[in-house]
Design brief:
Layout lengths: L1 H18 L4 H4 L10 H20 L15 H20 L9 E5 L5 E5 H25 L18
Antiparallel strand pairs: 1-2
Length: 159
């Protein structure tokens, strides 16, 4: 599972680099599907991962800024780096004993919903892959090559 998180983090960095090659206007242009915009989608990926791991599983007090507080490529990248620094140790210390430990998700209406931590972790992996797929479609729509989604050849098993 750790290798899939590493894969997602590597791909995310590549998407941030990709975003440097297009205008802010393109990053904030409304598109079909998902969140609907390049930059808010990257922000969403980071916020969801951070919220579920640090706020949900680890039950720490966290602050997730509204997108408007970080609405530039540089600020979303910095937010991503801060969140990564906080949650990576948890991912790297993950072990089988945590798979079935229950965490409680509190919905907007106050409803409490329990989830096994292993299920949440896998959801986060799938969530990011899903959204980066949307980024790839949007990249092609504007005539640009998307970031490679290939897991093979990224050197993840040589580190």
């Amino acid at each position: 599972m750790q290798k899939l998180f590493e894969y997602n983090w590597q791909v995310r960095k590549e998407w941030f680099n990709w975003c440097e090659t297009v205008s802010m206007e393109e990053l904030m242009k409304k598109r079909t599907g998902g969140i609907g915009y390049f930059l808010p989608t990257l922000y969403h990926i980071v916020a969801v991962e951070y919220g579920w791991i640090c706020g949900g599983i680890e039950q720490r007090e966290i602050h997730v800024p509204d997108f408007g507080e970080v609405a530039s490529l540089q600020l979303v990248q910095e937010f991503s780096e801060r969140c990564h620094a906080e949650l990576a140790p948890f991912v790297y210390n993950w072990n089988d004993s945590q798979e079935n430990r229950m965490m409680t998700d509190i919905l907007d209406d106050g409803t409490e919903v329990p989830h096994p931590c292993g299920e949440v972790m896998r959801h986060l992996i799938a969530h990011e892959i899903h959204h980066t797929g949307q980024l790839s479609v949007w990249a092609r729509e504007i005539g640009k090559e998307p970031v490679s989604a290939n897991f093979v050849g990224r050197g993840l098993f040589y580190s």
